[in-house]
Amino acid sequence: MKRLVILGGGESGVGTAILGKKKGYDVFVSDFGKIKENYKEVLTINEIKWEEEKHTDSLILNADLVMKSPGIPEKSPMVKKLIEKRIPVISEIEFAAQYTDATMIGITGSNGKTTTTMLTYHLLKSGGLNVGLGGNIGKSFAWQVAENQFDVYVLELSSFQLDGIINYRPHIAVITNISPDHLDRYNYNYDEYISSKFRITMNQKEGDFLIYDEDDEAISGWFSKNKTKANKIPFSISKPITNGASLNDKTMKINIKEQEFTMDTNFLALEGKHNLKNAMAAASVAQLMKIRKETIRESLSNFQGVEHRLEKVLKIQNVQYINDSKATNVNASFFALDSMTVPTVWIVGGVDKGNDYAELMPLVREKVKAIVCLGVDNKKIIDAFGNVVDIMVEVDSMVDAVRTSQRIAEKGDAVLLSPACASFDLFENYEDRGRQFKQAVQNL
Asked: What is the fold, at CATH topology level, of the domain defined by 311-442?
């Protein structure tokens, strides 16, 4: 019996454990932190052995195969030991993909991947396909492979998940865009991070498809030096595209396999240039999957959006409060600020992942009237924008951030939580940060 050891007892770890057990592995789950009570129950019911708050060498280094949760860096001592012993260390995606014949759609990118994934899922489901949603989002992919029979999977894939693939091959891959993020995990080397994203296409063959942003410098740079076997389907909002998606005045046009789809962009449910690109990517997938044009149009116009991504919370005394807690990097905050049409009080800060705020400067000058710094260490933000905005305040709780913003904001302004940073200094995760923001707004 082969031994499968799983590092990390979260959603992806427990899902992999269930699938591993079903496939006849001797399974052991080890988490250096605490495992949540509900996951412990699942493991115990399924008679899967586990440990928490430690990694025991003798129980791990005898593995035939290790599945590592995406949050654990390659540099961690246990992973180093496994690599030294030449024990394969893979991601949940790699492990689960070999046990399903479903059509795979994989979506990655620095920003927009959750929205594009949700939108693609919405389009395919509305088109009547039997489709599962997973990866970096929702219920574990492995867990679904163990318990459901989906014909198609739409997976959101982070660079960390792609680092752990060997044979995973999506039939349709999407790269929404690439901008510097998580550089702390890639030796502060942007090229390493870019290569990591492009792993999504490394196993693709001639009959597969790669949908990508033709306007993106990092993507074009990669293509100037590398090739893919997949059929390339670019999208652009700045230039005409013959085989792919483009913008003609206010009309989105998609030409794929001599099939043309058009839609007036005024009817798109999601606002902003970046969401137009997300819609192009998702609609391109839908067209490849032969969803009816009318269904695509209808679904693009009724999509509800993603929680914590430019989510309008409330309007109080004619001030709009917007939750963009999912903006954990500079590029995401760029999109948020770019879509603002009124003077904005910007709540920003958290754990800095090697951010360069320079690209935000023109937008901050144009749109931001005040900055509320919400982080343990705000020095970089203060240094970057101290001379650019009139008001700069430091706070150390979400309630303070919201109350301070309310005092500063005037009728017709907006208050935008778009942190450009990770959340781990003051919050559990970006969802917790977003929920606290919404709660504080509702309590005003």
From this structure: Protein-Tyrosine Phosphatase; Chain A (3.90.190)
